[in-house]
Design goal:
- α5 packs across α6.
- This protein has a 9-stranded mixed β-sheet, sandwiched between helices. Strands 2-1-3-4-5 form a 5-stranded mixed β-sheet.
- It folds into 3 domains: 117 residues, Rossmann fold (3-Layer(aba) Sandwich), CATH 3.40.50; 49 residues; 312 residues, Alpha-Beta Barrel (TIM Barrel).
- 38% of the residues lie in helices and 21% in strands.
- About 3% of the residues have low confidence.
- By secondary structure, it is an alpha/beta fold.
Length: 508
C-alpha cells in the first residue's frame, strides 16, 4: 500500500496515475497533506502503525515543487525513513498550466525511476491517447525531429514508442485525408447483452440468458432514441456506423434484422465509409445472422477469440470451443464477409509467451483482414480485479515476450499498425494496437481514439462525444448504464441530448 500526501488536490489526477504506473500491484491512497497531518496528530511517529509501504509527500507552492519519498518501516520505534527527495524552483508565471503539470510529473517520474530502477516506455504519459499528441503536432506542421524532441524531453517517452506513435499518426492522417470528418459525425449503437460476462470485462454488458425478457423492451426504447438521433445533425454527413456492446449478435436473427433495417431506414448512408458490427462471440454467430448483416450492407465485422487456448477460454468464462471460433470465421467468409477483424488479449491469467505464439499460429490459418492486440488491463469493475486473490497463482508470465511475439507476427503477415490506445493498469505499461492490411482499417476506431469527430452514441451505457474543432474542446453526454433504467428513462436520455444540442448546436 502506498500513501500520497498532496498539498494541492488539484493535481491528484496527475500524480496518482504515474505512481500507479510504477507500482501497478500496490493499492494507493491519496489524501491532502492537511488531512494526513490531522490524522497523525502532526506527528510522524503515529504513521508507523499505518499499513503503507511507501509515503510520497508532494508539496506545491507558487514557485516551488518539493517531493519526498519515505519508506514506512513499520517498526514501533522508527519514523518513516526518508529515501530520496527532489525540489525544483521556477517562475510559475512563465509556465502554462499544462507545462507546469508536465514539470511536476517529470520530477515525480525521475524520483520514482531512480528509486525503483525502472523506466516507463511511455514516460509521463498516462492517458489513453498518446498518438493524439503526435497527430496534433503533425497537423500543426511539426517535423519528425521536432516531435521526437518534444516527446522525449517533455514527456520522457522512449524512442521506440515515439517511432511507433509517429508511424501510426501518419497512417491515420493518410486514411482521414479524403474524409471530411470535421463536418461529419459517426453513429455508435450499444447492445449491452453477451452470452456470458468475461472474467476481465468491465463494459456495460448483461447475460442474454438472464436478461432475455428485457431485450424487446430494450429494442423498443433504443428504436425511440435511434429515430430521435436521425434528426440531430441535418447539417452533417454520417461518416461511420458502429454497433458494439456487449455483443450485438446475441440478438436473435429477427431482432438483428429489425435493428439494422431501422438504422438504414432513418439514416442517410450515401456518405458512410464504414458500417461495422461486433460479432465478437463465436457462440452468438449463425449463418442466418451473417446473411442479415450482408443484407443491410455491413462491410466490417469483428470475431474475437481473445485466445485460442481452451484452458484460457474456460477460465475467463467464454462458453465456447476453439473449434467454434474457426467454424464462425469460416461461415463468415462463406457468407461473403471480406473485412473481418479478430481481437486477442495478451496477459490473460495462466498464459505464457508460448500460448500466445500458438494462438497466433492458429489465427494465421484463418487469415483475418485485421488483428487487434489488447494488453490486459484490470479495471476496477472486472471480476478478475475484484476477485484477484483467487487468481494470484495464475498471473500471466512474460507479458513483454508476448508483446514481442505479436510484433513478429504482424511483420511476417504484412499487417500494419493504424491505431493505438492505452488503458489504466495495463500489464507491463504496454498498449493496445490495431493492425490491418491495406484498405482494411477500422475507420471508426481512428475517429473515436483520436477524438477527431463527433460521435452520437445511443443505447445503455453509451457516451456521446461532441467535438468543437474551432474551440478545441470536447463535451460529453452520457446515457445510464443499467438496461432497466435505460428502458424506464429513455425520454430523459433523449432530453439530455436535446438540451445539449439546443445550447450548443450552433457551435457543432
Amino acid at each position: 500500500m502506498i500513501r500520497i500526501n498532496l498539498s494541492d488536490m488539484t493535481y491528484e489526477n496527475d500524480v496518482y496515475p504515474l505512481v500507479k504506473a510504477f507500482y501497478p500491484e500496490e493499492g494507493i491512497k491519496v489524501d491532502s497533506t492537511d488531512d494526513y497531518l490531522k490524522d497523525n496528530h502532526l506527528n510522524f511517529d503515529k504513521s508507523v502503525n499505518m499499513p503503507y509501504k511507501y509515503i510520497i509527500d508532494v508539496s506545491i507552492s507558487n514557485n516551488n515543487i518539493k517531493i519526498l519519498l519515505y519508506n514506512n518501516r513499520m517498526e514501533e520505534t522508527s519514523n518513516p525513513q526518508l529515501l530520496d527527495w527532489v525540489e525544483h524552483s521556477m517562475d510559475i508565471d512563465s509556465l502554462t498550466k499544462a507545462k507546469f503539470k508536465n514539470l511536476l510529473k517529470r520530477l515525480l517520474y525521475n524520483l520514482l525511476s531512480k528509486y525503483s530502477e525502472q523506466e516507463l516506455p511511455w514516460g509521463i504519459l498516462t492517458g489513453i491517447r498518446p498518438t493524439k499528441l503526435v497527430y496534433e503536432m503533425l497537423e500543426q506542421g511539426s517535423s519528425d525531429a521536432e516531435i521526437f524532441e518534444i516527446m522525449r524531453d517533455e514527456y520522457l517517452c522512449s524512442d521506440e514508442k515515439i517511432e511507433m506513435s509517429l508511424r501510426i499518426a501518419k497512417r491515420e492522417m493518410a486514411l482521414l485525408k479524403y474524409m471530411d470528418y470535421k463536418n461529419g459525425y459517426s453513429l455508435y449503437i450499444g447492445i449491452p447483452f453477451c452470452p456470458t460476462t468475461c472474467l476481465y470485462c468491465s463494459f456495460t454488458s448483461y447475460s442474454i440468458e438472464k436478461f432475455s425478457t428485457y431485450v424487446e423492451s430494450y429494442l423498443d426504447a433504443l428504436e425511440k432514441e435511434i429515430i430521435y438521433g436521425s434528426s440531430c445533425f441535418s447539417n452533417k454527413k454520417l461518416t461511420t456506423v458502429y454497433l458494439g456492446g456487449g455483443t450485438p449478435t446475441t440478438l436473435s436473427a429477427e431482432q438483428l434484422d429489425r435493428l439494422l433495417g431501422l438504422i438504414k431506414n432513418y439514416y442517410d448512408f450515401s456518405h458512410v465509409k464504414e458500417f461495422c458490427v461486433e460479432a465478437g462471440r463465436p457462440d452468438s454467430i449463425t449463418k442466418e445472422k451473417l446473411q442479415i448483416l450482408k443484407k443491410w450492407g455491413v462491410d466490417r465485422i469483428s470475431i474475437n477469440p481473445q485466445s485460442m487456448q481452451q484452458k484460457t477460454l474456460d477460465l475467463i468464462g467464454r462458453k465456447h470451443s476453439i473449434e467454434q471460433i474457426k467454424e464462425a470465421f469460416s461461415l463468415a467468409r462463406e457468407t461473403g464477409h471480406e473485412n473481418i477483424n479478430m481481437d486477442i488479449i495478451i496477459g490473460l491469467p495462466g498464459e505464457n509467451a508460448t500460448d500466445v505464439e500458438d494462438t497466433l499460429r492458429q489465427i494465421k490459418e484463418m487469415n483475418p483482414d485485421s488483428l487487434t492486440v489488447h494488453t490486459l488491463a484490470l479495471k476496477r469493475a472486472a471480476r478478475l480485479n475484484q476477485e484477484k486473490e483467487d487468481y494470484i497463482d495464475l498471473r500471466a508470465k512474460d507479458v513483454a515476450e508476448m508483446f514481442k511475439a505479436t510484433l513478429n507476427f504482424v511483420r511476417e503477415e504484412d499487417y500494419q499498425p493504424y491505431y493505438l490506445y492505452r488503458q489504466k493498469n495495463m500489464a507491463e505499461n504496454l498498449e493496445n494496437i490495431g493492425y490491418a492490411r491495406a484498405g482494411k482499417e477500422g475507420l471508426y476506431n481512428i475517429l473515436i481514439m483520436e477524438e477527431q469527430q463527433t460521435i452520437l452514441a445511443l443505447g445503455a451505457g453509451a457516451l456521446s462525444k461532441f467535438v468543437f474543432h474551432k474551440e478545441n474542446r470536447i463535451e460529453r453526454v452520457s446515457n445510464v448504464k443499467s438496461v432497466t433504467e435505460y428502458i424506464n428513462r429513455i425520454d430523459e436520455m433523449i432530453q439530455r441530448k436535446q438540451e445539449f444540442l439546443l445550447k450548443n448546436g450552433g457551435l457543432l
